[in-house]
Amino acid sequence: MAERIQKILAEAGFGSRRKCEQLIQEGRVSVDGRPAVLGERADLERQTVTVDGQVVEPQPKVCWMLHKPTSCVTTLSDPQGRRTVMEFLPELPVRVYPVGRLDYDTSGLLVFTNDGELAHRLMHPRYELDKVYRVTVTGMPEASDLRALAQGIDLEDGRTAPAKVEVLRHHPRESVLELTLHEGRNRQIRRMLDAIGFPVKRLKRVRYGPLRLTGLGPGRARPLTADELAMLYTSVDLDPPQPRQNPPQLRHVHRPGRARGRFARR
Known about the structure:
Alpha-Beta Plaits; 4-stranded antiparallel β-sheet; 17 strands; elongated
């Protein structure tokens, strides 16, 4: 897959995107023996990219899952100094990015990868990937409310797509629902429940496509298993990456002044 050269270099560890753009502008980057141009795309599977004569090797495809806790933001950094999801990952041999996002007050399954095509397809509505959420609301929705959620709710940015709704607990003070969506609008579930008069108290994503959160505690992260990788790639019509003969050893580095991330080994 062809990607912008500065993105390829950044993912290969040559610095930030801006630093990599500077390398290109200084004429230190070549594609198939000719100087690269800023904004140009390249495919490391078919082309040779070098920096100061050093060949840039294709990066291994990496996928991790995190049980995102509440009170952190789904971003690489935060100007307000809040905790980010990146602080819960170990030091990895490649740069990974979250696929989509979960709100500050939402917990649950979050996928990270360095595979741009996989991330694009996972978020594209064409593939109708199931995203399952466990929702605790104040009060007890009636049958008509549940039908409205299932059929679609009119929000300020348009009507929501049909959703699957299951009642896990029905009580006058507090009820628990399980919602399955294909969409991923900003704060969609909270807005849907607000629209029918049942504010969300707690919201957790428990499944993302074929991946389940089972057995992973809040703030814990782990790499996907070979079976999970195969199911995830197949779910969006991609061939799974082949396992490497000698995968790099991971080491966890605590960043001073930040929350100590934790990760689980299988």
